[in-house]
Amino acid sequence: MKFTVNRTAFLKSLSDVQRAISTKTTIPILTGLKLKLEARGLTLTGSDADISIETFIAADDDNAELQIEQPGQIVLAARIFSEIVKKLPEKTMTFEVTENYQTEITSGSASFTIKGLDADNYPRLPEIDAEEKLEFKGDLLKQLIGQTVIAVSTQESRPILTGIHLVIKEGELLAVATDSHRLSQRKIALPAAQNANYDIIIPGRSLNELAKMIPEEADKISLRISENQVLFDLGKTTFYSRLLEGNYPDTERLIPKTAETSIEFNAADFLAAIERASLLSHEGQNNVVKLVLETAVQKATIYGNSPEVGNVEEELHFQNLTGNDIEISFNPDYMKDALRSFGQTTVTVAFTLPLRPFTLVPSEDHEHFVQLITPVRTF
User: Where is the DNA polymerase III beta sliding clamp N-terminal domain (predicted)?
Assistant: First the structure.
């Protein structure tokens, strides 16, 4: 096996594939990177059994400057190989496998030899035979992931909550995540897939890694689903993830349908105020801030109190306040995550009772996106 390639182009493909490679896997060969060279180009594969990523460098890709001398395949220790490639002195590198899987990497005057493994022992990628595929705009899929993955649980005690629940039916995709303290739900229309019908749970970690790989200019990303795997096709790169097994909780009933009090904020201004209030709450034992709404005098005040350090009080700017007076305490980190997901827009925050979950929705489009936060009992 022997080829020469542009180092920058190769590194970009390598960094994508490395997202799937873990040092903590129970299958030793999966700490490695698989390279397969054929007449049509070079395929790089990485996997940790949960996520698998495969990317292709075509022989006719001008940027890659790939020159194929002898086809073959090898598995190399991913971490050390990546470090070597990053440190090579010239813009091109030559890669050659000799006897007993010895692999020589040369660039300019630098030459490294590392030992590889037999690629025939590398696990096969999942086969997804589903004919039906759904298509998304890259930026829309990236946004949907960013808006929901923040509410995914990091606790392995309830594995089902470490995923994002996707329900596809009647030409619409519903994505929901909750860690039982907060919830994020986003809907998008799928006009081209009226007949598709799926109910799946994808690990939040998988979607987080996928979002990092979606290029800004990605026009179209396709999705295919099998019994226990999902495949995203990004063009030159394919991204596989296992699906979580089990039934996701019925989250629809958690979202209040009515409100006793509602207020409109500019999301960026409200976020800045929460960040100021949390400066002190983070220093204390209890990471809590309190919001007090007084409708009669049209006043909204945020309080942060840390007995060990001090307190903060700030009167908030808002657009509209209606309903009953309310005092409500919450984790400011949850509120910051929620507000960041809205970007530069106006949000409506709706409350029922001081100890009941409250919602945040974009004022212009409250049908398709909602964040829900459970308050904190402070007495």
Answer: 1-126
